[in-house]
Amino acid sequence: MAVALRLGVQSPRFEIRRDSSTSLALTSSFFSSRISLEASIRSFIRKRACGRRILRVNCERGVSAFFKEDEASRQREDGDAAELSIVMKFGGSSVASAERMKEVADLILSFPEERPVIVLSAMGKTTNNLLLAGEKAVCCGVSNVSELQELSFVKTLHLKTVNELGLDKSIISVLLDELEQLLKGIAMMKELTLRTRDYLVSFGECMSTRIFAANLNKIGVKARQYDAFDIGFITTDDFTNADILEATYPAIAKRLHGDWISDPAIPIVTGFLGKGWKSCAVTTLGRGGSDLTATTIGKALGLREIQVWKDVDGVLTCDPNIYPNARPVPHLTFEEAAELAYFGAQVLHPQSMRPAREGDIPVRVKNSYNPQAPGTVITRERDMSKAILTSIVLKSNITMLDIVSTRMLGQFGFLAKVFSIFEDLGISVDCVATSEVSISVTLDPSKLWSRELIQQELDHVVEELEKIAVVHLLQHRSIISLIGNVQKSSLILEQVFNVLRKNRVNVQMISQGASKVNISLIVNDDQAKQCVEALHSAFFEDGFHSEFKETELGDNGSPVPSVSAM
Ligand SMILES: Nc1ncnc2c1ncn2[C@@H]1O[C@H](COP(=O)(O)OP(=O)(O)O)[C@@H](O)[C@H]1O
Ligand SMILES: N[C@@H](CC(=O)OP(=O)(O)O)C(=O)O
């Protein structure tokens, strides 16, 4: 039996067949007559409920019917009304010029079977230049704003791109004028607040997306530009480091999905930006926040995959700027990727894994300069049986505090008191090592990403802690985080200490993350780079896995057949 639902001219055609591969929840009396059904339908709406796709068909006289669909039958039977399938995020390095914008457009079109949502960052180094222009505007005087080198850079880059793509400069000229006005306002006020800073950097993403969408339309691919702050990205009012609020998910799903159904066009969304729920002002999600925009859209729309396109062949075994021999890591779990990002790997925004993990949507990290490279796939689980070390992350310029209780051994409540001081002062802690009477902690240098832990704040912490303990403040330290299989921690640590001993490096603190994917070592800043190089060579280049192939014993004491460093 085939039941065809044909909707009016404003709605796309929709047809459902009742066969073995389609599960429909219908009441037979309702579908007794195909003719009356065709006549009675007014509208339909697709949504997700309990992890399933539901089609709600609204008929005359308020009658509604609900259909449960499986993905395969929906794809097959719903050709022209197919839903958005993936999100593709391109970072600043991927869209740094007109040439790059063309290449990215070609790249998107090389996946004709996909119906992507595109998220873009600002072009190249635009964000940094806008921030510098803002800082200089504070003290340069209103009449000198137009001459600011950074403003000229931003103007020239965008106008040149528009020109080279053969687009009308009116798509960005209003924004460029507004930007200059804003900088003059900053110069007049002699002040750059965090709120103004967010508004200032938002011009980068607003311009890149307008240019990209206009270019797609010019080459005949229908695209629609969106400013994230206008379509439901609702955030906290923590300017420069805002958090996405739950209300965002239904709001952006409704807007993007609704527009797509009524008039399909590739959505081009500004990364990094949101709207504060109380202030209604533009907010940003922290540096590199476009990754988070992409994963948020992925979860909101229940997409099949989230792709983040970078300028490297995926997540690498370490930062290629620290050690050029780094290699791509083929597979990571959400946990590993989150830990890696949190402990300083610039490649992913620290919060970006959360929506992907909650929606259980795979994230693929790819290279827009080398699309053939397989990249890194990040999923909920992976086969850890052969995994030892996955990646090494270095975070420098860390402050460490050694806090020793002045009270007797056995005094309870010491840890609680120490942490309540951090809480009161709003200071977040990275690594912790404790004994009954002493505690060592490292302090997050980027604290909330926006302001450095300034000396004044450090002095304040020490002053408070000295009321209950003897405190040693140790600066210029580095955290080397070893992301991997902590089930194999003895093996990892044995190798680590061999390497460090050979290199005459003393570890000052060691901490094993509760997440079970991270061992952190604290060393002096001036020894850190050399340590990372030596550790990378030992784990990824010097036949570490084959060496252990022969000797390593499994959990039950029997030899482990083979091990690999990834
Ligand atoms: N472990 C790592 N793996 C890959 N890239 C890393 C790693 N650590 C740091 N990076 C740096 O991150 C950069 C890619 O991230 P990012 O600058 O955010 O790209 P985009 O601006 O294109 O989104 C790389 O060019 C590389 O220098
Ligand atoms: N443009 C913003 C947001 C961003 O995500 O950039 P990128 O994807 O180029 O790291 C920044 O520079 O922080």
UniProtKB/TrEMBL annotation:
<dbReference type="GO" id="GO:0009090">
    <property type="term" value="P:homoserine biosynthetic process"/>
</dbReference>
<keyword id="KW-0067">ATP-binding</keyword>
<keyword id="KW-0150">Chloroplast</keyword>
<protein>
    <recommendedName>
        <fullName>aspartate kinase</fullName>
        <ecNumber>2.7.2.4</ecNumber>
    </recommendedName>
</protein>
<keyword id="KW-0677">Repeat</keyword>
<comment type="similarity">
    <text>Belongs to the aspartokinase family.</text>
</comment>
<dbReference type="InterPro" id="IPR001341">
    <property type="entry name" value="Asp_kinase"/>
</dbReference>
<comment type="pathway">
    <text>Amino-acid biosynthesis; L-methionine biosynthesis via de novo pathway; L-homoserine from L-aspartate: step 1/3.</text>
</comment>
<dbReference type="Pfam" id="PF22468">
    <property type="entry name" value="ACT_9"/>
</dbReference>
<dbReference type="InterPro" id="IPR041746">
    <property type="entry name" value="AK-LysC-like"/>
</dbReference>
<dbReference type="InterPro" id="IPR042199">
    <property type="entry name" value="AsparK_Bifunc_asparK/hSer_DH"/>
</dbReference>
<keyword id="KW-0934">Plastid</keyword>
<keyword id="KW-0028">Amino-acid biosynthesis</keyword>
<feature type="domain" description="ACT">
    <location>
        <begin position="403"/>
        <end position="481"/>
    </location>
</feature>
<dbReference type="InterPro" id="IPR036393">
    <property type="entry name" value="AceGlu_kinase-like_sf"/>
</dbReference>
<dbReference type="InterPro" id="IPR054352">
    <property type="entry name" value="ACT_Aspartokinase"/>
</dbReference>
<dbReference type="InterPro" id="IPR047896">
    <property type="entry name" value="AK1_ACT_1"/>
</dbReference>
<dbReference type="GO" id="GO:0009570">
    <property type="term" value="C:chloroplast stroma"/>
</dbReference>
<dbReference type="InterPro" id="IPR045865">
    <property type="entry name" value="ACT-like_dom_sf"/>
</dbReference>
<comment type="function">
    <text>Involved in the first step of essential amino acids lysine, threonine, methionine and isoleucine synthesis via the aspartate-family pathway.</text>
</comment>
<dbReference type="GO" id="GO:0005524">
    <property type="term" value="F:ATP binding"/>
</dbReference>
<dbReference type="Pfam" id="PF00696">
    <property type="entry name" value="AA_kinase"/>
</dbReference>
<keyword id="KW-0808">Transferase</keyword>
<comment type="pathway">
    <text>Amino-acid biosynthesis; L-lysine biosynthesis via DAP pathway; (S)-tetrahydrodipicolinate from L-aspartate: step 1/4.</text>
</comment>
<dbReference type="GO" id="GO:0009089">
    <property type="term" value="P:lysine biosynthetic process via diaminopimelate"/>
</dbReference>
<keyword id="KW-0418">Kinase</keyword>
<dbReference type="GO" id="GO:0004072">
    <property type="term" value="F:aspartate kinase activity"/>
</dbReference>
<dbReference type="InterPro" id="IPR018042">
    <property type="entry name" value="Aspartate_kinase_CS"/>
</dbReference>
<dbReference type="InterPro" id="IPR001048">
    <property type="entry name" value="Asp/Glu/Uridylate_kinase"/>
</dbReference>
<keyword id="KW-0809">Transit peptide</keyword>
<dbReference type="InterPro" id="IPR002912">
    <property type="entry name" value="ACT_dom"/>
</dbReference>
<keyword id="KW-0791">Threonine biosynthesis</keyword>
<dbReference type="GO" id="GO:0009088">
    <property type="term" value="P:threonine biosynthetic process"/>
</dbReference>
<keyword id="KW-0547">Nucleotide-binding</keyword>
<dbReference type="GO" id="GO:0005829">
    <property type="term" value="C:cytosol"/>
</dbReference>
